[in-house]
Amino acid sequence: MPLVARLGSGIPLVARDRELDRLRGALAQAGEGVAGAVLLAGDAGVGKTRLVDELAAGAEDTLVLTGRCLDAGETGLPYLPFAEALSALGNTASRPALAMLLPKLALPAEREPGTESMIAPSLIPGRRPEQDVGQLQLFDAVLGLLGDLSEQQRVLLVVEDLHWADASTRYLLSFLLSRLRSQRLLVVCTYRADDLHRGHPLRPLLSELVRLPAVDRLDLTPFNAADARRFVEALSDDLPEDVVQQVAERSEGNAFFAEELIAVATCDDRSLPSALADVLLSRVERLSPEAQHVVRVASVRGRRVRHYRLREVCGMTDIAFDTALRELVQHHLLVVEDDEVYAFRHALVREAVYGDLLPGERVRLHAGYARHLVQHLDERGAAAALAHHAFQSHDLPQALKASITASREAERAGAPAESLRYLEKALTLWTAVPEADRPSDVDESVLLRRASWVAGTAGQPERAVAFGRSAGKALEGKPPEDAAEVLLRLAQALSTLDGNDREHHEVMTSAWELVRERDASPSRARVLAGMASLLRQQRKFTKAREFAEKAISDGRRANAPGAVADALGTLGILDDHADRHDEARVHFERAIESAREVGAVNTELRGWYYLGLMYYDSGELAEAARVYSQAGERAQETGLTWSTYGLEIRILQVLVHYYLGDWPAAEQASEPPGMSVSSTVLARLAAAGTHLTVSRGDLASSERMITELRHDWHRDIQIALITGGTGGELALWRGRPELAVERVADALEWTRKLGGPWVLADIRIGAIGVAGYADIAAKARRKRDAGAAAKAVESGRKLAGHVRLTAKNGVARTASLGPEGRAWLARADAEESRLTGAGDPELWKAAVDGFAYGLVYEQALCRWRLAEALLGADRRDEAAEQLRQADEVATRLKAGPLGEAVVSCAKRARITLRAEEPAREQVDLFTPRERDVLGLVASGRTNREVGEELYISEKTVSVHLSRIMAKLGASRRAEAVAIAYDRGLLE
Asked: How far apart are the first and last CA of the chain?
């Protein structure tokens, strides 16, 4: 047997110290609770796997989990790298959703796509995408499992060959990396940079991932000339100097190419081909005929193949087969892995061998694998593999049948993107397969309907609509119930996109006409529930109630609990709108119960969401907090924390606890401040969290976050509604009222563009804008700029007028404007009174009373402004009481800016806030009031302006100035200021 060269793994790592140090540094950080990820990019064969292996080998006290992506057609398993990485773990029983990922566990039962909660009643502003519940549960389970593992020891998760990742794997990876926080976890992903053409699906994911603060990119470049020679010298034992030099030059710094050249050079003739494919094939050609046959058969299966599968397709005797395999392993073309699996040492070897097959040979070998797989369809992923091999061997009927089966299996595995891929293949094959050879249990319209469903849940709403429309054109000869289901699916797809309201109405109406005169059935119940939801959204409440009640009746008679739960939810919303809260609560609770019985978890969470929203809108915040606490636990329990309603519940938890003054609970429900935003989910949570960061006084981090979130307004109108207000508040606390009104105007323009002229959120945003104009007017008066002051007053009054019109003309979710809207309207009126002075005490008292239903912080802020207005009206004792109450809340909440404002107001008014005042450390030349007067005079204020600022008369200011000048020996105001600066009495 010819000599066999050593592999690069048999020598110390060459010329990769810098890259290895970076990886080890990231792993060390992960061990300290700073989770991270590294995207390791490099050309094929440059040494990515060897570098990662070196990292793993030196990682002490670390759980190393490794998974590899395979080229399309090599496997039928979605999420393959994660399945491979987690399959050896034993602690997965507590997370049932992992059954969708791990082949050793049974898949969940098949479900008819879209039959539960077909049309979800939604009053959340903005469109919401469809979601695959199973996929969300799986993602949550994987994240939770890795988090649990990292609590026990440091975890290194390696995902190799990401350029071959299926869409579901890419989605899961994006989900995980965007949620790296304090886990003791490092994720390393390798991919071929030279394979990423312009349309490669990995490119947009990489663009998204590199923006994440926890993700780093590391480029592995080829060896330079000196390092390439060092590598060849270390690898070769007795090659002549000229051959070593030739190999180093010919390899172009690619470690794998160098290894293969050395392997050729160790043969007797030592001739070196110039191209890598020629090098690899020249090694194959030197094998025995039996070994060449085995390696060619293996190349058709893919990078990896099981022993029993390869043996059966090769059709050789056991002795001949084993002899050939031994030869391939000894020559480092195949390597032995666990579970009787053989793998090509490098993907480039497999690609070269497969590319060298003759067309007829390739078809024949694919057919051999197809015949084998037909006998093993009980294996996870076998149907998808059969679809690939049958198609490549031109067996179109078999490819069609296997593609349909594979799509169902992928859907059950929580991989809608892969399910869609197989359905598209089946639809392509449908017309090419004779009618007699097509599956009898489906037709083209069924496939189109399924494709519409999985396209929607795979995040492709436009394609979901296109498939739904195609299915709607193929209704001839179908029973009315089946046709109605097709139209119902199209209506659901249309509801997720803007601009389709008319078509949505027409399609739903057509579906209803098909079943109007039919007996009760699940399809009729679902259409009724969909019509009830549509009519409710169109504010045709009486008709909506009629349809909802019919849906409940039909659903119970036809055993369609999902439709019953939908309709009960719609009735609850209708009752809430009519202020019939007792009836609404009963309907929501029944909807939750019905949904839980049938396992429609998303419908159940929707019921929880609207039940809590009813309490929230009616001002019963403590009850809303209780409901959302239970709802959050349920979302976490079912693995749907990140679903549409799971997210809405979590955001309401942030807001309710913030308003109630339970800021630690609000912080726990929100994302930590200062993090980078990478998705709509995180952007919305970060937006909700700005309430906390601004009010607590984390002004710098809030500024960064709000500025960054401005780029995410297009993702969801709620981001604009929240940060438009908190951004204005932040600017006011930073003393920049001009920026505050600018941010408010930006937000109001956005709401007008997306929601029309009377969006109720404008009341809160507008009130903050009026406060900004009041501050601008006060600043202009201090500068004696009458023109600027008048302009600010005019703009503030105009904005206050818009707030009042919005409160009058805006359409509330319930029958009338709720307590929150009324409270912010009262504050807008009170802020308007500040445009020309200290403000109207009665208006500010109305604002204080308006927020008394539970908004602790907002009420304390209004008490501060009320105190200022009372001081301006010379009602000192009342002002002192308001300041003390505001100070107590600000101190308890640790609301820094508000606390400072209250203390400053009390100091200027010479009001003692607390009984325990600090003892004086030294004698001051001036009294506190004289120091306040001198400081304001030094800033250029007139006696009248000083009096307004300190809530004293102009005459009293003159008295204080006379005493100051006497103490300093000055005869004029300016001289007193100059002397005070010279003596260091003013800073």
From this structure: 91
